[in-house]
Amino acid sequence: MNQDSSNVSAPVVGSFELPMHATFSLGDRVRKKSGAAWQGRVVGWYCTELTREGYAVESESHPGSVQIYPVAALEHVA
Q1: Are 45 and 53 in contact (CB under 8 A)?
Q2: Which residues are identified as catalytic?
Q3: Tell me, what's the pLDDT at 57?
Q4: What tens digit of pLDDT does each residue of 31-46 get?
Q5: Distance CA 41, CA 77 (A)
Q6: Phi and psi (nearest 5°) for 5?
Q7: What burial class does residue 49 get, using C-beta atoms within 10 Å of its C-beta: 0-12 exposed, 13-18 middle, 19+ buried?
């Protein structure tokens, strides 16, 4: 696989903290609001041009399995 270095982004130091006004915190229990069921704990977050606030959720049923979702797709679990 040939990758041109112009296509690879460099890591940004200090960019791994949750956003200041994050909806969820690391470790929060969440579930998908609709569609295929997914429930677990927030283990990370992401941001793209289309998804300004997204979360990585590790499954409670299948430890080690992680899915990413935009904030609008998730809700807190009591």
Answers
A1: yes
A2: 32, 67-69
A3: 98
A4: 999 999 999 999 999 9
A5: 10
A6: -60, -20
A7: exposed
